[in-house]
Amino acid sequence: MILSDRDLKTLLAAGLLVIEPWEEGQLGPTSIDLRLGARLVKYRGSRLELGKAPPASEEIAIDPRQGYELRPGEFILGCTLERVRIPNGYQGFIETKGDIARAGLQVHNGDGHIDPGSDHVLTLEITNLNSIPVVLYPGLFICQLFIHQLSSPCLREYRGKYFGQQGPTVYQPA
Description:
The protein is mostly beta strands. The protein has helices at 5-13, 98-102; strands at 18-20, 32-35, 39-43, 57-61, 68-70, 75-85, 90-96, 105-106, 113-114, 119-128, 134-136, 141-149.
């Protein structure tokens, strides 16, 4: 079951669901709009070896006036401005905001779920599917967070390798 704005407000007011920073205008009928943070990460090197060491990468600060020009077909990691904490008994799921999707961007690469117990900014896997460059600016409302109620609370909340991340986080081998 996807929670309505009424249920989302109740979880937020109780401090169970945490979105920081938070503005009331972020709340939609069934979702919470999240903004793009000010840092991006780009992979470097000629290849990425899964199961080996973390890949070479470069962090990029987005210029608030000029933005970051994402070329057609380019893949980059970003993160939400907001820290998100998902309570036990619930799971989050992000989707690209409709207007952002209409510009040709995708904000997750098939990994849009946020497990119960997660407490961090969300890494976004951003791809430009358009045939022209698209400019990204920090603070842009880029994705929507939907909250689903689980059939029962989990026995074990998320404490995986990406727990507590504070910025866009590259692939980490197990």
